[in-house]
Specification:
Length: about 350
């Protein structure tokens, strides 16, 4: 049976009441947190995971503990018995073999074209379903925008920028904007605290790429020792300003304001799980009466990066499934669709 037919001939879980079968691509910091979030859900069933060296698939649902054990002790979920497969083409082989309604792409976007190339691979395979990413850079979302027509023609409902920023905070900005007749600025400031950088290597490398003097390609080429040396110089803290973040293009497309009115920056502490500052978005605008005001939406300090990225990603995946059921395909951003709460 081809992957193309599979998406159509077995649409059981796209019926209300039957859990949505979910795959997680990438099993690092965010991928593992994503699986942990899925386990207690009744509306979603975690059936697939892929990492660089292999994949695991079980139509009745994967076991988190055994997947974690295989990944942590042997370096890949592909070692899992009997559900694992070791392969250097893990995403492609998984997609061809598994019956999955929606995938969360918890993959590094290194190089900056990687996620778009994965989207293209899904199109080329003739796969139909829902894809969600937590991509961060403006230029990365722009690459996906170029695939819009092909995704629509292929029957894929793709939701991009569905993490925290872009994602939760971008969507909050859209809500906040409703009080205003004109938006003057959207300012996103994030605080991230993690106990050690190795738990989120791609996230930290991608953050380093925003520091003056670094680029995506130079951050990609850094060895772990070089990353550690850089973090030693800053006591583990990265301060990021005027980042190239896709919140800008997403809010521009959503009609709020031009992208130059959107700014994103933050502080990441890689040696302390406590947030160095409270993550927030401030939306300043003018009301129809001519008053200038600012709405501020602040995330609770106890919420982790993983909670604020993976929670929204699945909220958007559920919304994507609703769109699929209605025959709505193509590319959507977190700023134009309301996420749905997953029970
Ligand atoms: P990580 O480095 O901890 O893990 C990456 C995982 O991807 C690993 O399991 C690795 O084996 C797997 N992988 C790498 N290349 C692969 C390939 N070709 N095929 C299959 N699997 C592959 O990554 P992380 O820190 O969890 O970050 C994941 C992504 O989430 C990053 O792109 C990061 O920028 C993004 N992120 C987004 C937000 C947001 O708010 N939008 C916040 C944090 C992180």
């Amino acid at each position: 049976m081809s992957a193309q037919i599979r998406g159509y001939t077995n649409p059981a879980s796209t019926k209300p009441g039957v859990p949505i079968r979910v795959g997680v691509l990438g099993f690092g910091g965010l991928g593992q947190a994503a699986a942990r979030i899925l386990i207690p859900k009744s509306e979603m069933l975690w059936v697939a995971a892929a990492d660089l060296k292999g994949y695991a698939y079980a139509s009745e649902g994967l076991n988190l503990d055994t997947c974690l054990a295989a990944y942590q002790s042997q370096g890949s979920v592909g070692y899992l018995e009997p559900s694992g497969t070791l392969t250097s083409r893990s995403i492609q082989d998984l997609v061809e073999q598994a019956t999955v309604d929606g995938y969360f792409l918890a993959l590094p976007n290194l190089p900056n074209t990687f996620i778009a190339s994965v989207a293209q691979m899904f199109i080329d395979l003739g796969w139909r379903g829902v894809l969600v990413d937590a991509i961060k850079r403006t230029s990365a979302v722009e690459q996906l925008l170029e695939l819009k027509e092909k995704l629509a023609a292929g029957g894929i409902t793709y939701l991009t920028g569905c993490g925290a920023t872009p994602g939760l905070l971008t969507a909050a900005a859209v809500l906040a904007a409703q009080s205003y007749a004109e938006i003057h600025s959207v300012q996103i400031t994030f605080g991230v605290g993690i106990a050690n950088w190795e738990a989120y290597r791609a996230t930290i490398r991608e953050d380093i790429a925003h520091i003056p003097g670094y680029s995506v390609s130079s951050a990609l080429c850094m060895t772990d020792t070089e990353v550690e040396a850089l973090l030693n110089q800053t006591n583990g803290v990265l301060k990021l300003e005027n980042m190239e973040h896709a919140d800008d293009v997403m809010l521009e497309l959503a009609g709020l304001c031009s992208r130059d009115r959107v700014t994103v920056g933050g502080v990441v502490d890689t040696r302390n799980p406590k947030k160095p500052l409270s993550t927030n978005v401030q939306v300043t605008g003018r009301t129809f009466e001519g008053k200038i005001s600012t709405h501020t939406f602040t995330l609770g300090d106890e919420t982790s990066m993983a909670a604020n990225v993976c929670g929204p990603a699945f909220g958007y995946l559920k919304a994507g499934v609703t769109l699929q059921r209605r025959g709505v395909y193509g590319l959507f951003t977190a700023a134009e669709i309301m996420p749905q709460f997953v029970k």
